[in-house]
Design a protein that fits this description.
Blueprint lengths: L3 H9 L10 H12 L4 H5 L5 H8 L7 H10 L4 H5 L6 H10 L3 H8 L9 H13 L3 H13 L6 H17 L3 H8 L10 H17 L3 H14 L6 H16 L5 H9 L2 H6 L1 H13 L3 H11 L5 H14 L5 H8 L10 H13 L4 H18 L5 H15 L3 H10 L11
Helix pairs in contact: 1-11, 7-8, 7-9, 8-9, 9-10, 9-11, 10-11, 11-12, 11-13, 12-13, 13-14, 13-15, 14-15, 15-16, 15-18, 16-18, 18-20, 19-20, 20-21, 20-22, 21-22, 22-23, 23-24, 24-25
């Protein structure tokens, strides 16, 4: 991860697009260092040392014949790299990514070879792997940018911050995402979609951390940005979040959410909107409605759906459904080792089968509570907290309970254990 203060300093320089480092600068310098060549050894017979130094630092626009000969000396094929010299690549890929045109992202980036010396290509590859749901591979390309951070320009630095934030959010690390993205809040890019995505992800992270004042404040800023040009899907997701926040004081909002969740177009083509609508209904305590919808649609193999189903059963204390929930949990698909929904399903099973209190307490203290401090959920963290306090008090650990309660001021903002 690149230090955010370093990125902010780069972004503040506000380098124009025509001032971006020549991509060959990064490639040549990285390869020269990999081969342990000095500037003198590399430039000998081709150009002066000062010329190569300026080239590597992006201070000059190099002559093509010099670049070709330098590539040859460093055992690189110039034609392989020059084919991808495209100053529009990063903007085109990001714009397609922002507008959820994932097929276009694949068309733009899919055929490009992995060239780890080029920051723009690394960032485009990271977006491609996010689109394909492979966050581990996306991190590999972000790490490549980290290793070349000295050659970042302001535009690429901004995109790095945004894409790193995207990865954190998709990993449900909302506190980390908010902590990372907030310092960029006053940064402004010439590409308006950079600014939009920053505000959107601050809103999404704040929502999941139950920081509703920030949600409302950032939403107003976003409305200004959205006056011209707007991605419909993103508008719907942000509108849903706003409705859920307002719905905490307005009963009528639940009818709007039911409209979204009962729209089969969203279930079939935009699952995020479907799930967020269900989450909102659960947050508004419409537990029976959520259970009825989930039973109708039958997506029990998904860990996020089954976890939400179990949450509503737990809140209703509907013991008649305990057994069917536990049977369904045997068939659920665990998406990753850090699947927070699967973790909650395991937690509910321990409650429903009335597990040994000592074992349950140990599991909470040493596994679930630390896990939930990193991977937050809008609903489940509160359940973990309440059950843990109840267990502490059942063991007459009142001092521990008091300490935990003091620490959990700001639990929903993710500060426990930090």
């Amino acid at each position: 991860m690149i230090n955010k203060e370093y990125l902010i300093k780069l972004i503040s320089k506000n380098i124009r697009k025509d001032e971006i480092l020549n991509p060959f600068s990064t490639i040549l310098k990285k390869q020269r260092l990999n081969k342990n060549y000095t500037l003198e050894e590399t430039s000998y017979g081709i150009c002066s040392v000062s010329y190569l130094c300026k080239l590597e630092n992006g201070l000059i626009e190099p002559r093509e014949e010099y670049v070709e000969r330098l590539f040859e000396k460093l055992d690189l094929n110039y034609q392989d790299f020059s084919a991808f010299e495209d100053n529009n690549l990063l903007d085109d890929t990001f714009n397609a990514y922002y507008h959820n045109d994932y097929q276009k992202v694949r068309e733009i980036v899919g055929g490009i070879e992995n060239i780890y010396y080029d920051n723009d290509i690394n960032l485009c590859k990271a977006m491609l792997f996010i689109v394909n749901g492979d966050l581990d591979s996306a991190r590999v390309f972000l790490d490549s940018v980290d290793s070349l951070k000295n050659n970042l320009d302001s535009r690429s630095a901004f995109v790095y911050a945004l894409i790193y934030g995207e990865v954190l959010i998709r990993e449900h690390r909302y506190h980390d995402a908010l902590d990372y993205l907030l310092p960029f809040e006053n940064s402004k890019a010439s590409n308006k979609y950079f600014n939009n995505l920053l505000l959107e992800n601050i809103i999404i992270s704040s929502f999941h951390m139950n920081d509703y004042l920030r949600v409302c404040a950032e939403y107003e800023k976003l409305n200004i940005e959205y006056q011209i040009g707007y991605s419909n899907r993103r508008k719907i997701i942000l509108l849903l979040i706003k409705k859920i926040v307002l719905g905490l004081k307005n009963e009528d909002v639940s009818n709007d959410l039911l409209t979204f969740v009962n729209n089969n177009n969203y279930l079939n083509s935009d699952y995020d909107i479907y799930y967020l609508s269900l989450l909102g209904l659960a947050k508004l305590k419409k537990y029976n409605e959520v259970i009825t919808i989930i039973e109708k649609d039958g997506l029990f193999s998904r860990s996020d759906i089954l976890a939400l189903y179990g949450y509503c059963i737990y809140k209703l204390d509907d013991k008649s459904k305990y057994l069917s929930f536990m049977e369904l949990s045997n068939e659920v698909i665990k998406e990753s080792d850090n699947d927070q929904n699967y973790k909650f399903i395991e937690f509910l099973n321990m409650i429903f089968i009335n597990s040994d209190k000592i074992k349950f307490y140990d599991r909470l203290k040493f596994d679930i509570i630390p896990f939930s401090c990193v991977f937050q959920h809008n609903l489940y963290n509160e359940v973990y907290r309440d059950v843990y306090i109840e267990l502490l008090e059942s063991f007459s650990k009142y001092k521990d309970s008091t300490i935990f309660l003091k620490e959990s001021i700001g639990w929903n903002l993710g500060f426990i254990g930090r």
